[in-house]
Each structure stands twice: as C-alpha cells, then as structure tokens.
# Entry
Amino acid sequence: MGKLSYATNTSLDGFTEDATGSFDWSMPGEDVHEFYNDLMRGIGTQLLGRRMYETMSVWETEPSLAEESAILADFAAAWQDSDKHVYSTTLTDTITKRTRIVPAFEADEVRALKDASSADLLVGGPGLAAHALRAGVVDELLLMLFPVVVGAGKPAFPTDLRLDLELIDERRFGNGAVHVAYRVRH
# Structure
C-alpha cells in the first residue's frame, strides 16, 4: 500500500503564491532541488490539479530544462517516471505521457489507488490537496518553508480544516529553507 503525501513550497506565513500569483521566492537552490529529486524517485503516481499539471509538465515538454544541469535532468527523469492523474473539468487532452484526466476528485477512488500501489503517491497543488485533506486520504505533509513572508496570496491549506500532526522529519538548507515532514494523525 502506498502512502499519499502532500508536498508544497510555502512562505513562512503559509502561502504557496503571493497576492500577484508569483512564487519566484520559492525557487530551489541545488541542495533543495536534489532533495526534491530524491523525493520524486519514490513516487509512483502524482495527483495534480490542472494548474499544477500545466506548470510541471515543462519537465517533459521542454527538454532544454534538463540540458541545463545534471540536477535538472535528474528531476525531469524522475518526474516523467510516474503516472499522473490530472483532476480537471476543462482539460480534454494530455501533453505528457503516462497521464490521464480525471473529471472529479473521488476519495474512494484515491483510497483504492493507494491500496493497489506498491509505490508512494504525491498530491500537488493546494486546491486539489484541500479536497484530499478534507477527505482524510493524505498520510503525510511535506513542507518546504522558505524564508519569506508574503502577506497574502494562495494559502497552502484550507482555512476550514484542522489537522493533528506528528513531526517525523526536518532538514535545513543553505538558502535558509527548512523542510518539515508531518504524519497526519487520523
């Protein structure tokens, strides 16, 4: 059985994007990128909202990114080496391999996917993650906290949800970012 993790970059005040929609403050340095490379290698299936899919698909559709460095090539290969379930009511076609469009989030379908999986799963994007968190199917939170306060924007978590958590890991990075991992207590 695979576990489902919600991984996100967030400002110290809990936003994935600032009020203008920018997330340039969360660009990873090499050590953070290597950390994400290691994380992605263990993922068998990604659950993505439309916006996250469109943002991340460049790791397959723009080969020039992988040509910039060995670290970026490693991430591109790891990203491509997972199945992607894209939750969207507007997309009709995929632009990447190993991708299927799912019209609506169904918690029982995600539970069955976890039960049948020998690898871990990752949910990306705060909108889709909110559905998964409310449904109680998320097992872990993987947060990369960046040393910035943006004041407003897109929150990493729904504001109407309480989760009791257990700290299971933490790590500091050279750019001041801190990774914290929590197990969700169900």
